[in-house]
Amino acid sequence: MVEDTKLSVILTQKKLIGARLVMVSREIAADGTKLIEELERSRATVMQATPATWQMLLAAGWQGNKQLKVLCGGEALTQKLAAELLDKVGSLWNMYGPTETTIWSTVYQVKSANEKISIGQPIANTQIYILAANLRSQEDAYIPVPLGEVGELHIGGDGVAGATKCSLVGVGFFGFKK
Q1: In the chain, what are the domains?
Q2: More reliable by pLDDT, 14 or 120
Q3: Rounded to an integer, what distance in angstroms lies between the CA atom of residue 91 and that of residue 64?
C-alpha cells in the first residue's frame, strides 16, 4: 500500500497482516514522477490518496495498474477523474470522512463513470443519519428526514471522538456509549 501522506517520513516499511505498508516522504508525495516510480518499485496493490494526488499522477503520465485498488478521499471525487481512473485500475473506492472522525466514515465502490458518485455506506461500527436541519427546538433536533429530502449529516460510532458538534454547517456527530 502506498499512502499519500503529509508526514515527512523517509520511506519506511512495516509488517502488517501479510502486507507491507509503504509511506513516502513529502518530496515523493508532491512529485508525480517520483510517486509513479515508488508505486512501480513497491508493487503496491492498494493506494490511498486524494483526488489531487490522483490527478497529479495522471498528469505525470501514469499508465495505471489493473491490479491496484484505489481508495480516493479527502476531497470530492469528480466523475471526470473517476472515468480516467476506472480505465486504469482494478477497483475504485470513494471514501468520505470529516476531520472529526477517524479517517473514513463511509465507503462507496465506483463501478461506472456514468453513475452519480455517492459517499456510500457506513464502514463497520459507524452509523450515518440524515436529520432535519435548521430546527427551532431541541426536541426536534433528531428527526430523520424522508428519503430524498435534504438534511444534516450526523455520524456516530467508534470513529467519533466523543460527542461533538463541529463548526461545519450541516454535519453533526454522536458519541454512542456501548
Answers
A1: 2-123 (3.40.50.980), 124-178 (no CATH)
A2: 120
A3: 11
